[in-house]
Amino acid sequence: MTYDEFNAFCESKAATSYVMQWNNSHVWKVGGKVFAIGGWGPNDEPAFIFKTSDQNFDFLKEEPGYKPAPYFASRGMKWIQLFESTPERDEELRYYLTESHRIVSLGLTKKKQAELGLNQ
Predict the structure, then answer these.
(1) What pLDDT score was predicted for residue 10?
(2) What is the CATH number of the domain that holds 23?
(3) Beta strand 16-21 with 25-30: parallel, antiparallel or unpaired?
């Protein structure tokens, strides 16, 4: 997945906003909370960071091409980085980005979720 494809996919999710920050990374938020980051790949290769469930974190951290996300995981957060992005993994990445959006949106207050039309 390219960064353009990543940005288009994240933009298609409900109640999202975009900012470029943290060394020119593509940062996507839902309700003001980060759910996906495009950036920080080795040798300027595309890499993608997303929040996961505990179960997916335990599974993905052992899978080739994935690792606990820099900075996030070292603070005990369940974030994963896909650092070997291939066209074959695009569908998988879309699933994990969708899950990250859902997990982060569920962490918003009920009032904020209702205001944004999320999880209804």
Answers:
(1) 98
(2) 3.90.1150.30
(3) antiparallel
Residue 3 exposed, middle or buried by CB count within 10 Å (0-12, 13-18, 19+): middle
58's enclosing H/E stretch is: helix 54-60
In sequence order, what E strands does 1-120 have? 16-21, 25-30, 33-38, 48-51, 66-68, 79-82
Structural domain tally of the chain? 1
Low-confidence ranges of the chain (pLDDT < 70): 42
**Exposure of 91 by Cβ count < 10 A (0-12 exposed, 13-18 middle, 19+ buried)?**
exposed
- Rounded Cα–Cα distance for residues 87 and 104 (Å): 26
Q: What is the per-residue pLDDT for 107? A: 96
Q: Which residue has the tokens 């300027």?
A: 44
Q: Please give the residue range of the domain that contains residue 62.
A: 3-116
- Helix, strand, coil percentages for the chain (3-state, nearest 5): 40, 25, 35
* Dihedral angle over CA of 59, 30, 86, 58, nearest 10: -10
Asked whether 85 and 96 are in contact (CB, 8 A), the reply is no
